């Protein structure tokens, strides 16, 4: 908002002009008015309300910087400078608050009188994105993520059986195979845990992503590209539909044939076509050749995977 921008600029000006008397600033969400905290009575700031406080922002940041050097138990979830209350707030999970937390809190309070404690009910955790073409790991094996769906993602069936545990590109636990079919088809889907967020993206392996818009099947002769964790982004054309491939493990029917290359570890990765490559096509199954000499690669079409398990494709 324009008023927020104006207040933010005014806050920066106040910080520069007040020096060590500046105690912080905040915008009141109800009135939209800026309040500037000062440590000396009698000071004024044009265009803002003024509140006299005990600690300068520099002092609060100094206290926090000391806490940053301390080792905290897992029951301590965070600490921050809160300009509105003129305090350094230490958050502790009330469900896991223990002796180690009490020791940390006592030490923190001894550093400065501005330290206060708030109880929370949950501990924060890292959040990661699901993106087509990124690596997935199953024990000692590696495949690639296909497309995000509600609750997880799709990949190739030969990458894991139902119940197989999976970790993401960063080796963080991701979820388990909720369904898998191989041979006859080569399809699977993974139900992910709360640490992972489905995104409508496919890794183009050049620092950018393709945004998935739908899953309209491309015609024979169409340009098509795939993303995989071994050989990245590779392109070719659609050569045939409904091909039966006789793998050593058995026949797989209904595959699409292409002349784009792939190698081991690319399995399960995304195939896209259409304008801007926004139409999801399927997941890598197998093939012959490699990305040095070229070859033939087959993919399991996406729409039958979605239909089999009633999955909803994540779209941009």
Can you count the helices?
A: 4
Order of helices and strands: HEEEHEEHEEEEEEEEEEEEEEEEEH
Strand order of the largest sheet: 17-18-19-22-21-20
Strand content: 35-45%
Largest sheet: 6 strands, antiparallel, barrel
Query: What integer is the average pLDDT?
Result: 96
Report helical residue fraction. 10-25%
Radius of gyration, in angstroms, nearest whole number:
28 Å
Terminal Cα span: 26 Å
Number of strands: 22
Rough outline: elongated
Which consecutive residue ranges, at least 5 long each, have pLDDT under 50? none
Structural class, by secondary structure, is alpha+beta
Describe this structure in words.
- The structure is a single chain.
- This protein is of the alpha+beta class and 316 residues long.
- 16% of the residues lie in helices and 44% in strands.
- It is built from four helices and 22 strands.
- It has helices spanning 2-18, 57-67, 99-111, 302-309, and strands at 22-27, 34-38, 49-52, 76-82, 87-93, 115-120, 128-132, 135-138, 141-144, 147-149, 152-155, 165-167, 173-181, 187-192, 196-203, 209-211, 223-228, 232-247, 250-258, 270-273, 279-290, 294-301.
- The strands form six sheets. The chain has a six-stranded antiparallel beta barrel with strand order 17-18-19-22-21-20. The chain has a five-stranded antiparallel sheet with strand order 10-11-14-13-12, covered by helices on one side. The protein has a three-stranded mixed sheet with strand order 1-2-3.
- Strand 21 and strand 22 form a beta hairpin.
- The protein is elongated.
- 40% of the residues are buried.
């Amino acid at each position: 908002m324009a008023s927020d921008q104006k207040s933010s600029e005014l806050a920066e000006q106040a910080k520069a002009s007040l020096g060590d008397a500046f105690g912080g600033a905040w915008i009141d969400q109800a009135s939209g008015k800026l309040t500037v905290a000062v440590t000396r009575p009698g000071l004024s700031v044009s265009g803002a309300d003024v509140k006299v406080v005990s600690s300068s922002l520099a002092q609060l940041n100094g206290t926090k910087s000391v806490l940053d050097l301390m080792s905290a138990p897992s029951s301590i979830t965070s600490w921050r400078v809160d300009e509105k209350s003129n305090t350094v707030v230490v958050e502790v999970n009330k469900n896991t608050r223990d002796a180690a937390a009490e020791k940390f809190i006592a030490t923190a309070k001894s550093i400065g009188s501005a330290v206060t404690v708030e109880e929370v009910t949950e501990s924060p955790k890292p959040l990661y994105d699901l993106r087509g073409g990124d690596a997935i790991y199953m024990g000692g094996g590696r495949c690639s993520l296909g497309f995000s769906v509600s609750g997880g993602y799709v990949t190739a069936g030969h990458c894991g059986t139902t119940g197989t545990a999976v970790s993401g590109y960063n080796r963080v636990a991701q979820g388990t195979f909720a369904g898998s079919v191989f041979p006859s088809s080569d399809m699977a889907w993974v139900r992910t845990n709360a640490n992972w967020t489905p995104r409508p993206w496919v890794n183009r392996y050049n620092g950018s992503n393709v945004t998935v818009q739908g899953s309209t099947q491309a015609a024979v002769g169409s340009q098509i590209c795939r993303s995989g964790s071994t050989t990245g982004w590779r392109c070719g054309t659609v050569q045939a539909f409904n091909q039966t491939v006789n793998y050593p493990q058995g026949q797989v029917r209904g595959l699409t044939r292409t002349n784009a290359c792939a190698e081991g570890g690319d399995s399960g990765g995304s195939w896209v076509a259409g304008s801007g490559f926004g139409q999801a096509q399927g997941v890598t199954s197998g093939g012959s050749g490699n990305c040095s000499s070229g070859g033939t690669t087959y993919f399991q079409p996406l729409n039958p995977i979605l239909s089999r398990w009633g999955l909803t494709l994540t779209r941009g």
